[in-house]
Design a protein that fits this description.
Layout lengths: L7 E3 L19 H13 L4 E5 L10 H13 L3 E6 L11 H17 L4 E4 L7 H5 L15 H20 L4 E4 L9 H11 L4 E4 L3 H4 L8 H8 L6 E3 L1 E6 L6 E6 L8 H10 L6 E3 L6 H27 L1
Parallel strand pairs: 1-10, 2-3, 3-4, 4-5, 5-6, 7-10
Antiparallel strand pairs: 8-9
Helix pairs in contact: 1-2, 3-5, 6-8, 9-10
């Protein structure tokens, strides 16, 4: 694949989830949406992931979804995906409602012309996480070890995957700590248990290497996850830790400057035939600026990785 064919989208972390009056972007005047697309275009982004933390396409009327799509197109911005987050379909209190919401979001994503439907099993922030400077430093939800709950996750995710296939969409599941997608081994096993060709992994291993605890080797995690990847949230962190595991620290940085060697990982992904969209993601500071810097870096990596794949297949 020519590197120019890869979609490189921007996340919505750099935008407030509400307008200046405090109204959610879902209910906001479309002028607020236009401002987002204009900012992306000014940074030469041509694609955006719609995160439901900001805009919930399933809760828009068909008319407003059409306005959203037209405003994006007029700015030259593709709506690459809709990402449903912290709406777990196995939540003990809201699982059934979240499942219904995910179904409605799949239909909305197809209506918007997205390339992929993205979700996961992460839960809303705990009180401690909401208070922390970086939420990943505080304790959050843990999926239960109960095999019946895992089986429920498989059934419901398979149900969503079949729906996505019916409307022509791949579905991607985001790796996230302390869920059934919280280690590479468990995540791959979950994909295999679901058993659908259109359901793959989002190998967002940045979610794991930032944790203030012992972690698996990032190289080994990528090696397990990348063969199953169909969408990729990319971010990186500086990390340090004591040899005796008495302390850990991490903070966000650019793709180039963090602990994950994305030059090696992108080359490996291309070698394995990865052809899904990339999503530039950054917490803190000038999120949009760092995402733009990361996009430029990634384009260079793809340009360099491509000849290796071509020669290997010739």
């Amino acid at each position: 694949m020519n590197p120019t064919e890869h979609t490189i989208a921007c996340c919505m972390h750099g935008f407030p989830p509400a307008d200046r009056s405090g109204q959610s972007l879902t209910a906001a005047d479309p002028a607020s949406w236009a401002t987002i697309f204009s900012a992306l275009a000014s940074l030469e982004f041509t694609a955006l992931e719609i995160a439901d933390s900001h805009i919930r396409p399933a809760d828009l009327t068909p008319e407003r979804r059409d306005v959203l799509k037209r405003l994006a197109a007029s700015a030259g911005v593709e709506l690459t995906s809709v990402h449903v987050q912290r709406q777990s379909i196995i939540d003990p209190d809201h699982g059934a409602a979240n499942l219904d919401y995910a179904h409605r979001t799949i239909d909305a994503a197809a209506e918007l012309g997205c390339q992929i439907f993205s979700t996961g099993l992460h839960q809303p922030f705990s009180s401690a996480q909401r208070k922390a400077l970086w939420f990943w430093t505080a304790k959050g939800w843990e999926d239960p070890t109960d095999p019946d709950v895992r089986a429920l996750a498989v059934r419901r995710l398979r149900e969503l995957g079949k729906h996505a296939a019916e409307v022509g969409l791949p579905m991607s599941l985001e790796m996230y700590e302390d869920t059934y997608l919280g280690t590479a081994e468990s995540a791959v096993r979950l994909i295999e248990e679901i058993g659908l060709d259109n359901v793959g992994l989002n190998p967002d291993i940045g979610n794991l290497i930032r944790l203030h605890r012992p972690i698996d080797d990032w190289r080994e995690m990528h090696e397990l996850a990348l063969p199953h990847a169909n969408y990729w949230h990319m971010k990186n962190y500086q990390r340090d830790e004591a040899a005796d595991a008495s302390w850990f620290t991490s903070h966000p940085t650019t793709l180039q400057n963090g602990i994950i060697d994305y030059r090696a990982m992108v080359a490996r992904a291309v070698e394995l035939g990865f052809d899904g969209p990339f999503l530039m993601e950054q917490y803190g500071g000038d999120s949009l600026g760092v995402c733009a810097e990361n996009r430029t870096y990634l384009k260079g990596l793809l340009a360099q990785a491509q000849p290796t794949k071509d020669m290997a297949s010739s």
